[in-house]
Design a protein that fits this description.
Elements: E1 2-5, H1 11-24, H2 33-37, H3 41-49, E2 55-61, E3 64-73, E4 79-86, H4 95-109, E5 115-119, H5 124-132, E6 136-144, E7 147-157
Length: 163
């Protein structure tokens, strides 16, 4: 297995994986599949190259992309983990843990001691996975942008002390 940060030449792979994620788990992300399919090739290239936005990493098995994750600094100057997804047939293989470790390492490289993410507490599989990765829930809630009827709760790593 290989994990690497994307650049502009990876835009089609990023698009492929992102659209697969949005099809597989449509209520787990802040953007809808319908919205993402309307992005132009230039927008995908910008996303893959991290121009003025989040960085993305792809996980590969036997040369094929099987997962993704992103990291971005929010308007609140927090380092946020976003877009985490592993294809169903590769789940349980350790890919997800390795993707999370990449984002934690990048946050530390950029001088952030904490990583934040949002997850629906009713998405028990994801919430339990993040708890096992050292994240904990904090008392912050907001509607999911793509599905405002779903409330997501913020989780933080490594600790909630002193927030």
């Amino acid at each position: 297995m290989q994990i690497r940060i994307t650049d502009e030449k990876d835009w089609m792979l990023l698009k492929q994986v992102r659209l697969a994620a949005l099809s597989d788990a449509p209520t787990a992300f802040g953007v809808s599949h319908q919205t993402a399919t309307q992005y132009t090739d230039e927008q995908w290239k910008e996303r893959a190259s991290a121009k003025d936005g989040p960085e993305f990493w792809l996980a590969f098995m036997d040369g094929e992309p099987v997962g993704m994750i992103g990291g971005a600094i929010s308007g609140r100057h927090r380092y946020n983990m976003i877009g985490m997804w592993v294809e169903p047939q590769s789940r349980g293989s350790g890919i997800a843990s390795r993707l999370v470790e990449v984002v934690k390492a990048r946050a530390l490289q950029k001088g952030h001691r904490r990583v934040f993410l949002d997850v629906s507490p009713t998405n028990e599989r994801a919430a339990n996975f993040y708890l096992k990765q050292g994240f904990s829930f904090i008392e912050e809630y907001e509607p999911l942008a793509s599905h405002p009827q779903i409330t997501v709760q913020t989780m933080v790593w490594p600790s909630t002390d002193g927030i």
